[in-house]
Amino acid sequence: MSGWLCIAGLGPGDEAMVTPEVSLALAQATDVLGYIPYVARVASRPGLTLHPSDNREELERARAALGLAARGGRVVVVSSGDPGVFAMAAAVFEAMEARPDWLALDVRVLPGITAMLAAAARAGAPLGHDFCAINLSDNLKPWALIERRVRAAAGADMAMAFYNPRSASRPHRFEQILQLLRESCEPERLLLFARAVSTPQERLLCVSLGEARADMADMRTVVIVGSSTTRRVGRFVYTPRSVPCA
What we know:
5-stranded mixed β-sheet
């Protein structure tokens, strides 16, 4: 097959955070597919067709991209951040499972700077020790599983990065997560609310768990919950790389 497919991460928002590898793939592409606001970040040009689609059409988008590549297209599927973190890479491989003929395609995953890493860098080093990332949207998994994973991470005293914390359709869910954290963690535990990092709308707010409110987050916010060792140094927040023996 002469075509190829790249699954690319556009980073958190600032064009300076798009990697040269991704920029090269976009410059060579005949087709770009992705969620509407992500495709809007790609400049149109002669020879390039843009295929924006709704956020709930991931598998259909993946199948369409693989089909275009199988017919000889140079195809890029774009995600924000990193394509392997709550994004399109998994959907493409899920679509490939149903079509063994697509396994012969030239498929590459091009990493990007994901939102939690951009947010952590702005704040200092809150993810400096063990951490996990949890998507708080229950569109693709049951809410009970989200609660179980948050409890497990809190019980293991890990820092946590929460994606999609609070949407208009489920504003109460993030308050439930805060209540769960209050049951497991001390009130002084640090939380970082990092909204739209690297864009003109960027806003960072670091508060204690006792001060945290659900309305401090929205769908453009990544929330980083520190571990019990996370602390401030001047205007920075960091988690030490060493943990004292019990």
